[in-house]
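Same chain as my last thread, 408 residues:
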Amino acid sequence: MKKTFIYIIAGVIVIAILALVLSQQQKQEFDKRVTLGRQYKDPYGLEVVYTHLPMLFNNGKIKINRDPPNYWYDPDSALDGKTIFFAVTQHFDPNRSEMHQLLNFVKKGNIAFISTPDMDDDAKQYFALGEEGFFNFKLYNYFKDSGTTYLSNPPFTKDTSFLTPGYSYTTHFIDVDSLHYYILSRNENGYPDLVKVDAGKGSFYLHSNPLFFSNYSLLWHNNLNYLEKIASLMPADKNKIIWDEYYMYRLKDNERNNPGNASALHVLFNTPAFRWAFILGIALLLVYILLGAKLMQRLVPVWDKPKNESLDFTKTIGRLYFEKGDHTNLAKKMATYLLDYVRNKYFVSTATLNDEFVNNLLNKSGYDEEETKKVVEYIIYIQAGNKINEQKLAEIYQTFSKFYKHTS
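reply #2:
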């Protein structure tokens, strides 16, 4: 058996090595997950924009935020008006209190740049505009235009277009009031996808396609220039950046049915090395359990049915005294032993054999009331010193034996 186990383990290891070698030889697939995370270097992560932002704003300091605005916003600290709130997320769902805090933050001269295809009703009502469109789940080939934006002239010197390959949001803004909003770019259908609205000393920049800031898009042809042009719209004196992750991660449970967004486990299983390691780990665990169970199996011992030792002891003592013909003494021994049995089994005091004793014994033993009273009467009769003949002893023995059989 030991040799068999070694052979099985060796076979599993060989299969694991072959599987890993074959998985490495397979053509690497394009990672379609839309993570929009600063720490991700995959096509739809934000590592490129995260590392470039400080350089675009006088090597400003960047701070990660995972709290609502009322936690990090301080009117006194915002008086310098040199901060940019930068949020790239698939859903922007602030409540009215959070929107009010962001508005106060902007009024101090700060900037709020929000790139999202999906704002909640509170945000739309606050900004007095709407959004419409959809997410294009189809992944085109690497060189095909799947989303184009045209920068407006003015503020830019000439109309400039940029495209993003692969996935694309076709979301755009509607009901944009031209008296208050500056339209900075439009999509291929002529709808606004980047607008600006002033508030106090600062401004809100609303952008509808966060995939333009993905690694895949910014590293595509000259698209990094798109990020630079967007940054040029904002005042050059900004040197503090709040990189917001509160709205990105707060809404994970409420996200739409989006195959581009995967759970952590799904992300891990998309990695061939982890997938094979997990499968092989489960296989080894099953082999260990099967072989170990067979090795450790033991016969289950047969337990004899518990014997009524009290009844056997009574029978033995009875035979000894019965053979001597000392019936009275035998009856006393039987009564003494039965009282000791009651004390040890039911914890009932036997000092006084009255009605209270009978009721306690009835409640705890569950024995028949008449038979219980009969047992107690015989004990009292014996303790009174009455002489016991052979016939009376037989009656007592039968009564006590029935009690033992029921309560054992």
